Amino acid sequence: MAFTFLSPLVIESPSQRALARHWDELTAGRRFPAIEELQPDSDMHDPKQLVIWGVEGDGRQQKFRAFYQGGNIGEAFNSAWAGKTMDQVVPPPLRELTLEAAHECAASGCLVYTIFSTVGSDGRRVDCWRLLLPFGRDDKVEQLLVSLQLSSTERRRDILGSFQNQGDILLQGKIKSGFAAAKSEPTASSDGLSASEYRRANRHEIWKAGRISFAKPMITCIVRDISSTGASLEA
Hints:
By secondary structure, this protein is α+β, with helices and mostly antiparallel strands.
């Protein structure tokens, strides 16, 4: 799957969004910061939801070895990952997608964000929000910090089983550094009025993943903004 560029506003979790912004502020004009610079506030992350992977080698021989695994991750997978490689510990149904995102993060030096979706034992949709953050020196990614969060409080091991049986990718892409300092300005028309001033109802930015369905065919999209009279979609 291609990794298109995304806006950081698509990140669903407030703590993951804050962690991404902290990473971007640390870059200070570089592609990515060094892992020693990472000092997030407690409200930006929960150590139980994090994994740190060391990046070994290049190309097809590249491996990702765990040297920190949060408690929630250990509970969900019922496995201790320290010292093991990603291809050894990730269940086969999730392995290809997981490795693909890790390789993209290491190669591009960008944040990589994915939303997986499944159906829990209660019949309700459950999303997994996965954020990968690259760290390193001399323009080489040496570590990946991975944050995993669920949209449901259902037991983690039950959810893992659901993802192994049925999992859909709602959104996947990468985010370049430099967004923390960027400021978006409204687009003005030739008479000096912004596009929003011509609308009957004000649009509100939401940047959420969605699906566009035409009978049976269906594609994923981003809902950029929405109002009572319309919405802006990005496929």
